[in-house]
Design goal:
This protein is mostly helical and 256 residues long. The chain has eleven helices and no strands. It is elongated and about 75 Å long.
């Protein structure tokens, strides 16, 4: 009963309504069904795709790139954020360059990245890591700087070393902002993964290849199915990250 009560059925109202309108519009030929295909066509195409091995290989490859880039970018972002947030010297040295570089569109780095690292797996992972670095670093800096001076002084009175101050006060206090930025970065990483598969094209496959293949063949059903799978995986990852964040921060008092 508790699981039924916690199930957010209201979140399904809009998708079901849009699906019904979509089905009605195509059934009544209110739209050009060559461009806006009926839902049954997308379902039929999807059933064909899920019986092929390449579909699951593509999911594994995309998730592998996503996880690899996310982990690399998250570690670099947290490290950079802690250093800049704790050290005023590092802030003065690194912050101007960091804030100037983040004004450049992420996709504007692609020509330079492809020239230096090619269009293979390495460049894709670097691109994803780059997309994760900025939000995680900014969230970590904000979290570290939110620790009050009073708490720092009390820790020093109790004889905390710099390592103890970081491990027992600063990082636990900054955890909500860090985890929040990681959750946001996870969403951005998935978007960057699909973007990299579109723009850094080579002989490898992935979920982005489904949509790319549908575009080449002007197969609208395949394009829509690919978008649906990409959205479902991204949404599921976001929900998982949200649940993990709630679990890890269960020690916090509830916000009223």
């Amino acid at each position: 009963m508790k699981s039924l009560e916690s199930w957010n059925w209201r979140g399904w109202v809009l998708p079901v309504f849009l699906l019904a309108v979509w089905q009605l519009a195509t059934a009544q030929h209110w739209v050009n069904t060559k461009l806006i295909v009926p839902p049954i066509g997308v379902l039929t195409t999807g059933l064909k795709q899920v019986t092929q091995t390449d579909f699951y290989v593509g999911i594994v490859l995309s998730l592998g790139r996503d996880i690899g880039g996310f982990v690399a970018g998250a570690l670099a972002g947290v490290a950079l954020g802690v250093v800049v947030g704790v050290s005023s010297l590092a802030d003065r040295v690194l912050s101007p360059t960091f804030h100037a570089a983040r004004q450049i569109s992420l996709f504007a780095w692609l020509p330079l990245l492809s020239a230096l690292a090619g269009t293979g797996e390495l460049s894709r992972v670097i691109f994803i890591a780059f997309s994760v670095l900025y939000p995680v670093a900014l969230g970590t800096i904000e979290g570290v700087r939110s620790v009050s001076t009073g708490h720092r002084e009390v820790a020093r009175v109790y004889g905390f070393t710099h390592w103890q101050l970081l491990r027992r006060l600063i990082l636990p206090s900054a955890a909500p902002q860090i985890l929040g930025s990681l959750r946001l970065a996870l969403i951005i990483a998935w978007m960057a993964t699909i973007g990299a598969e579109f723009l850094l094209v080579n002989d490898t496959t992935g979920l982005g290849e489904i949509v790319f293949k549908g575009r080449r063949a002007f197969d609208v059903e395949l394009i829509l199915f690919g978008l649906l799978i990409i959205g479902l995986i991204g949404g599921s990852a976001g929900q998982l990250a949200s649940r993990l964040e709630t679990h890890w921060l269960r020690w916090r008092a509830p916000i009223r």
